[in-house]
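Quick log. Single chain, no ligands specified.
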Amino acid sequence: MTRRGMTLLETLLAIAITGMVGAGVTAMMSSLSAGMIDHHDTRSSTLRAGLSQARLSSYVTRCRCLLDCEASRLVLWLEDADGDDAIDATEVRWVHHDDDDDRVMIQWLTDPQNVLDEPYANPTAVDWWDQLRQLELMATIRSGSLDLIHGVPEWAFNTPGGRSAQSRRAASMDQRTVEATFTLAVADNTFQHSLGDSIRMHDPPTEETP
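-> predicted structure:
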């Protein structure tokens, strides 16, 4: 009995089919791998968003009130440490988004020699960010900072109304919630998130009439 081998056409057809199957398997594995990576990135972004919420909330929920709220900056009266129902510089926390380093950080001041003995009688009239810069220049004042959130290309607080800086600060002091939208960068992807929290014991100081 004569055995016939594969013809050239059959060989080429077999190679083509094998190639098509291989390409299909490769595409399927690539798609599966990409799906797993996307799922991992999404999960990582969700976890980081939750951590971001927790870190900011640790300051917002226990503060007495907001002192100012701009698109990328927030000022908090964290506590009335000396019980005088007035705002001292060491009781203030400054939060801002640094778009150069893609981070949100918080700053504070300490006064080891007790030279800041005058509280702020009219907080809506105070430019808090200018105050921070001026006080940091004083030799006796110490400043500190902490990174709250990393990998944040975009960040925006929901700001209160107010045509002037003073009216904005007054509206901020009446505000009982802090809300923000932001973007987290994970690997080569970015994810949009929102967060919000309320001030549990909203208790702003009584502002003196200028």
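The chain is about 35% helix and 30% strand.
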